[in-house]
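Batch manifest, entry 17 of 40.
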Amino acid sequence: REEVATPAGWERFVALTAELAAACGAAGITLGLENVSWCALSSVRDVVAFATRLTEIGTPTQIGFVFDPFQAVEAGANLFMILAAMGNRVVDVHISDYRERDPGARHLPPGDGDLPWSALLRAVAGSGYAGPLMIEGALGDDETIIGRVRGHLNPLIRSVFSFAPDGAQGLVTGERTHAATSTSTAPPAGVRAGIDLFNEGRFYEAHEAIEHEWHAERGPIRRLYQGILQIGVGFHHALNGNHRGAVLLLTDGIDKTAAFTPHCLGLETGVLVAQARACLARLTALGPDRLAEFDTGSIPRIEGRAGE
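Output type: structure tokens
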């Protein structure tokens, strides 16, 4: 990483990569550059800077990115922003888990750490990547660990991609295939988990769960996710004495969620908006000095439609 810290060093890196990309293309293979935590492309800024030069470095069949969410987190980078910066030039994905409370336990099997796999897989699909997911870590000598990983990831893969977990074909031919994400009539796993936390009154944790899905989603529905998490954060502020924050976040969240009423993804969004508006009106009337009088029992739950 130190070798590319100067402008001259960065230009040498770009020039050498172009040479390697040309050689790889001539050999019929694609050069992949990974966002390794201690190498040249460890930060969002690095990946963005490199991505802007890709057209002069090589064609999509000559060079692309290898996305590694573990390496992104280890580098302190936002893994969703790293992936977004790679655009549609992802040629491989390495997967392993990261445990925040035990960063020394590196490359855990997916599902054994803290990474938001539901949102991650949806973000990978949104990038257009449809190739294999390479597990990077120790899996043991029997089927125990790999069976646990498959049990965790396969349902998520089926909910995101249009093909079965073992059904992705085509990248080995050199032709870029694109993942067609499945349309869903229910919230993704991370949003469902966030709604459960919201209904338990754990609004900050709900925000964190839903935020991953908001980052992963590229379609208009991401505005609903943001609206729900903002309503939750608004109530978090109200319960912690921050009147201004409560009013601002509730106002923004209600406005966003209102675009998806009366129902969306099997949720009673219209009921949520109406009840949240009543709370906002009450908070506004109370003002900062009487915030303690707010009836927390009036905070709404997010309910599913009857029969869904």
